[in-house]
Design goal:
CATH class of the largest domain in chain A: Alpha Beta
Number of strands of chain B: 0
Low-confidence stretches of chain B: none
Shape of chain B: globular
Oligomer: heterodimer
Largest sheet of chain A: 6 strands, mixed
Radius of gyration of chain A: 23 Å
Distance between the termini of chain B: 26 Å
Mean pLDDT of chain B: 91
CATH superfamily of the largest domain in chain A: P-loop containing nucleotide triphosphate hydrolases
Strand content of chain A: 25-35%
Radius of gyration of chain B: 21 Å
Helix content of chain B: over 70%
Structural class of chain B: mainly alpha
Largest sheet of chain B: none
Helix content of chain A: 25-40%
Low-confidence stretches of chain A: 1-17
Number of domains of chain A: 2
Number of strands of chain A: 14
Shape of chain A: elongated
Number of helices of chain B: 12
Number of domains of chain B: 1
């Protein structure tokens, strides 16, 4: 079990974070026959925060999102969205969702797809025009508003899906791999959109395996593997250690192995990265390498990245 | 607009934008044109002595030919309904199209009923439109009109709805191709079952006759088709058939009696059961 603290972020605490958290799950599980996709997921996502849900392929990320949205029925456990049990029809009025498998009616225009979602949401008809224009502008599709979705590239369809998820100023938005079809400019835009959502108090559940993306926008992160949360917390809590990259030659394998005392080693030949190594032990590490006969070309301490931590967590999980 | 009507409108819109309606309209006009020409030829048929056929015989011939032509129409409608309904839900589940929609406050029962309703409107339009065009063409060519044209449209339309309902039910679980093929085979089997039942009636063999009864209960499409035939038979033909006794019943293109009230009530129950089954099946499906 991993529980994420519930303290709402200052920017979102005014009004939006009324009482119940955006998402709360207790021991949520889902099996497909003998395959366990989600195994006892327990977490809390505060309102108004950007929550990163990380994990390797097949970790149960999309299944978790579908469980929360009521598209799948849990085998056991409970969950609440915005204070209401999952599957509640009225709660869905306040939720936006961009599926990983995004697909929209090819025979409709972008504007018509958004109008359809306004109608299903349902939003007051008088607000449709403004909602649609804002969504189109936010995702950069204003120029293609009247074109059939069938003529759109995958990236444009993903933008359209994101636009649909933003309609009606939802209190909680699920984005399942929202940049999988986007180019770097598109990814940048999506990060901006996510920041915009957070600043107006919308909770964002970001499902992704693009760690740099998560690192840049998320307040909190949960790492899942084999359907379980293996680590969770704020970005600062998660990335506590420092990593040191050393460019070195002339070390025998036995000597390299001995260096494992200094922390987790990612040994890539000439380049060794030590994670969980505090800065004050760096001189000791260098003198040890020199004493072993190694020739040091570069020593670069850096903060641990989410990728370092992610790989480390998965390694630790595999060793269990 | 209630969600059911939104989904129904979307279904009709898709058929229109994908040019399904246009294709059916063009094909129908071509068939109507050819059949009008064919029916017109009947009025010019002469006997071996060169004298024209009396109008009673023209009407009889026309009624028989109209039954065959209508069989083609009902077949096109039934097959189209099965082929269109087969992938109606499954393809949208597989492609992910329904994911973002079902995350809205939209019940799965509303998706099923909306799609059924949308397609039912199309079936009704096709049945009424093609019947109007065909009967108008026949009337123009020969001056003959079947005795019960409104009932004819209702029976043919209901037959299309049967296949639509079956296809949609299958579509909640099976892929479009599988569901479509099963619906097609079921329709053919239903027709053959009806023919076997006719043979049983002709031979006065109760066991064989029951095959027809059971197939009509399981899939009422053939039973409804018999109703359509009855609606097209002029009194002179019915009198001849009744005079022939049980032998006349062993004919898949003839009906001595209209469908019973009990059967028509069963058809209503069958539709309710099929829709209920579709809703239950889709609601319990994991997407």
């Amino acid at each position: 079990m991993a529980d994420v603290a519930e303290a709402p972020r200052a920017a979102a605490s005014d009004g939006a974070a009324a009482g119940s958290p955006a998402i709360r799950t207790v021991d949520l599980s889902k099996s497909f026959g003998h395959t366990v996709a989600v195994a006892g997921l327990t977490m809390t996502v505060p309102r108004g925060e950007v929550f990163g849900f990380l994990g390797p392929n097949g970790a149960g990320k999309t299944t978790s999102v579908k469980l929360l949205l009521g598209l799948l029925k849990p085998t056991s456990g409970q969950a609440w969205l915005l204070g209401r049990p999952i599957g509640d029809l009225q709660t869905r009025r306040r939720i936006g969702y961009l599926p990983e498998l995004f697909r929209y009616q090819a025979w409709l225009s972008a504007r018509e797809v958004l109008a359809l979602h306004c109608e299903l949401a349902p939003l007051p008809r008088s607000s449709w025009n403004d909602e649609i224009s804002t969504a189109l502008e936010t995702v950069g599709l204003t120029d293609r508003a009247g074109d059939r979705v069938g003529t759109f590239s995958k990236g444009m369809q993903q933008r359209l899906g994101l636009g649909a998820a933003l309609l009606g100023e939802p209190e909680l938005v699920f984005l399942d791999e929202p940049t999988s079809a986007l180019d770097p400019v598109g990814r940048h835009d999506v990060r901006q959109i996510i920041r915009g959502l957070a600043s107006r108090g919308t909770a964002v559940f970001l499902n992704s395996h693009l760690l740099s993306e998560v690192e840049q926008v998320c307040d909190r992160v949960a790492v899942v593997d084999h359907g379980r949360v293996i680590a969770a917390g704020t970005m600062d809590e998660l990335l506590s250690g420092t990593a040191v990259r050393v460019r070195v030659t002339g070390l025998a394998q036995a000597d390299r192995n001995k260096l494992a005392d200094f922390g987790n080693v990612d040994d890539e030949g000439d380049q060794m990265t030590f994670t969980n190594l505090s800065a004050d032990r760096v001189p000791e590490l260098v003198s040890q390498i020199v004493a072993m006969g190694g020739r040091v070309y570069e020593v670069a301490p850096r903060h641990q990245t989410l990728e370092d931590r992610f790989l480390q967590l998965l390694d630790e999980e595999d060793e269990k | 607009m209630p969600p059911i009507l939104v989904i129904a409108r979307l279904t009709i819109q898709e058929a229109a934008r994908r040019r399904l309606l246009l294709a059916l309209l063009v094909l129908t006009l071509i068939v109507v044109g050819f059949s009008a020409w064919g029916f017109h030829k009947i009025t010019n048929v002469t006997r071996s002595d060169g004298s024209p056929l009396p109008s009673v015989e023209v009407a009889l011939l026309t009624s028989q030919l109209l039954i065959v032509v209508t069989f083609m129409y009902s077949g096109v409608l039934a097959l189209s309904a099965a082929v269109v309904a087969g992938p109606l839900i499954s393809s949208e589940v597989e492609s992910g199209l329904l994911l973002s929609m079902l995350a809205r406050p939209l019940r799965r029962s509303e998706v099923v009923m909306g799609k059924w309703l949308g397609l039912a409107v199309l079936v009704a339009i096709y049945a009424a439109g093609s019947a109007f065009l065909e009967l108008a063409a026949v009337d123009w060519a020969t001056g003959y009109l079947p005795p019960h044209p409104v009932q004819l449209v209702l029976y043919v339309g209901a037959e299309g709805l049967v296949l639509l309902s079956l296809g949609l039910a299958l579509s909640t679980r099976l892929s479009g191709i599988t569901g479509g093929v099963i619906a097609l085979v079921a329709w053919l089997m239903g027709w053959i079952g009806g023919v076997v039942g006719d043979i049983g009636a002709g031979l006065q063999n109760q066991a064989v006759e029951n095959v027809g009864v059971i197939s009509h209960l399981m899939l009422p499409s053939d039973g409804l088709w018999r109703g359509a035939i009855y609606a097209m038979e002029p009194d002179t033909l019915l009198a001849t058939l009744r005079a022939a006794g049980t032998v006349a019943r062993a004919n898949p293109f003839a009906a001595v009696d209209p469908p019973s009230i009990a059967f028509l009530l069963w058809v209503v129950v069958w539709f309710a059961l099929m829709l209920g089954l579709s809703i239950w099946s889709f609601r319990t499906r994991e997407i």
